């Protein structure tokens, strides 16, 4: 590592201004800061909490996804192996089948290793495609603007990948992340200047461009020929009774033992990640609890109103928590420090708005079984306005005191 450090230091002048490769400084800086911590960390304003570099902040978010990743690998493989057993399939075609057969891994849904490895064969191509496609456009924009490549893309790429169904075609994966990076962030000036969450922007693009595959109506199990409905879609069709009749218990959905997009099934794993983010003070507890309180209050309100024609009115709040991507959005998406509200009071309002909108979309609009993604993007748009009114209210109150 010492030799590598010396090599990077020796070639750095060639990438500095006036050097033969100054156009590629963003690429050099990206490699350098990826391997080593940057020499500059925050010491004072506007960062008043402590001396922490952006890389450490981003690394903490990625670390918080580790419990989600582990449960995701097992559940994705388990759902695929179980679907194969139900369909009477003994092997897979294509490169995944070749790997699983050649190394004797097999398709046993009772085998932890088989499930984990099978799940990895679906997640890894999606994540690598996201890194390559999105990273390429990050580097292009950084090189043109002569800016450094920001570590925030590591978080964007991870969160975006975890929101996708395991059966998503790789060309759609690439198209979505390119849209999220370019339209959701770079056209507004890059990291720190975007008002929409880039990962959710890319996911929303796929949601509306390819609704048959991304809407959540069909089971996201990566086996051709396996059909059905997701637990959230079952709830939209027949309420809680339809979910339980399909064999799902609340504990099962809380742990993540059900079909769904890659990282959104296990509420338990997501809450473990939330505990880490709150302990390290990377995520705002005001936003997380605001989203939760907004969801609970709105669910109770609909439960009290009731409906003879819409079974979603009777879905309890704890089922809203465990079904779909609510928990993942609450912890990892709503807390994005750039697109969320900045003031303390504004964060409570912002979070409550997301929780309210999520349940409202799920219950009242039958066209969208999921609601958290649209709710967060809606709140992103209003976050600056929320902060504006909070600041103006503070100014007015202080003027009255004086």
Verbal overview:
With about 400 residues, the protein is mainly alpha-helical. It has one domain. It is built from 18 helices and no strands. α6 packs across α7 (about 150-160), α14 (about 285-305) runs parallel beside α17 and α17 runs antiparallel to α18 (about 370-400). The chain starts with a helix and ends with a helix.
- Helices, by number, come to 18
Radius of gyration: 23 Å
Specify the structural class. Answer: mainly alpha
Q: Spell out the helices and strands N to C.
A: HHHHHHHHHHHHHHHHHH
Count of DSSP E strands?
Answer: 0
Shape, per Cα inertia axes: globular
Instruction: For the record, give the distance between the C-alpha atoms at the N and C termini, rounded to a whole number.
Output: 60 Å
What is the arithmetic mean of pLDDT?
Answer: 85
Helical proportion, percent range? 55-70%
Largest sheet: none
Give the percentage of residues in beta strands.
under 5%
| Residue windows where pLDDT falls under 50 for at least 5 positions | 43-48
Provide the domain count.
1
Features of this protein?
single chain; 18 helices; 65% helix; globular; mainly alpha
Write the layout of secondary structure elements.
Layout: H1 2-15, H2 25-35, H3 54-64, H4 66-87, H5 94-102, H6 112-145, H7 152-162, H8 170-182, H9 198-209, H10 211-214, H11 231-245, H12 250-255, H13 267-279, H14 285-305, H15 317-322, H16 326-333, H17 344-364, H18 372-401
Helix pairs in contact: 3-7, 3-13, 4-6, 4-13, 6-7, 6-8, 7-9, 8-9, 9-18, 13-16, 14-17, 17-18
